Amino acid sequence: MRRSSAQGVLYGQTVANVAGIANSDLECMDILYLEGRVTAGRLAEVTGLTTGAITGVVDRLEKAGLVRRERDEKDRRKVFIAVVPEAIANLGQFYVPMQQAMEKVFGAYSDEELRLLLRFANEAHKGALAATEALKGLLDTPPEKRPELKLKKRPRQS
């Protein structure tokens, strides 16, 4: 699982490099695609980034033609961030090799096995969300009361 997760991160980094954007920006694009049209505040909430950082992400994605800002029809002060559908199609081409590889892997399993794997993936996702929320709780803990991170000190190189 860890190797697959790490490889997914590395694949995403490669897609971001090929697309000419930062990996964190690509991750935000993915969240926007999954969440749909959202406010910058919601994107900040989902990613854990500050609203200031999200403004920079959205500025870069908008400049790259990947997202657009849309004013709410009912409340003109409210702005939504939406993906540009054509841009998703263009980015999607970089995921075709991964999709084909996964289809080949999934093709070796029965429907019953695939249902089990899907259940596992969904439950693992819920576990990861819970663990992330628990870890985020440490952010509200004063640094002196957080568990100590013990790292080995490396000798200085001259």
UniProtKB/TrEMBL annotation:
Region (Disordered): 139-158
Domain of life (superkingdom): Bacteria
Lineage of producing organism: Bacteria, Pseudomonadati, Pseudomonadota, Alphaproteobacteria, Hyphomicrobiales
Cross-referenced InterPro entries: HTH_MarR-typ, MarR/SlyA-like, WH-like_DNA-bd_sf, WH_DNA-bd_sf
Occurrences of domain HTH marR-type (ranges): 1-126
Source species of the chain: Bradyrhizobium agreste
Protein name listed in UniProt: MarR family transcriptional regulator
